[in-house]
Design a protein that fits this description.
Helix content: over 70%
Oligomer: single chain
Distance between the termini: 57 Å
Structural class: mainly alpha
Order of helices and strands: HHHH
Number of domains: 2
Radius of gyration: 26 Å
Protein name: Spore coat protein
Largest sheet: none
Keywords: Coiled coil
Strand content: under 5%
Number of strands: 0
């Protein structure tokens, strides 16, 4: 539930930032928004909607993979804390492998 709330808050914040940047861009370039809307064709509007939807999907996928990577990193740290001898065993295996490589 927390993740969903965070995602919604993040989407709201990113939407606000996007509106702010676009408004600032229009103001700097002295663009009349109503006039620009009236000049836009239906095909251009449809392509713009499709682009926005694709970007939303990409952002959601990115956030999902980011959450998975964070959980994985946390799990690895937990495993190391639970099994402190794990590092010693790994080091011993590496020493054995390096000794075998030296002998060959």
């Amino acid at each position: 539930m927390d993740g969903k709330m965070n995602r919604e808050q993040l989407q709201g914040l990113s939407g606000q930032l996007m509106e702010l940047f676009v408004a600032d861009l229009f103001t700097k370039n002295k663009v009349n928004v109503n006039e620009a809307k009236s000049r836009m064709t239906d095909e251009q509007r449809e392509r713009l909607k499709q682009t926005v939807e694709q970007l939303k999907v990409q952002v959601e996928d990115f956030l999902a993979t980011k959450n998975v990577q964070t959980v994985t990193a946390d799990e690895e740290e937990t495993v190391k804390q639970v099994h402190p001898l794990r590092d010693v065993i790994i080091q011993m295996r590496q020493k054995k492998e390096s000794n075998k490589n030296k002998e060959e």
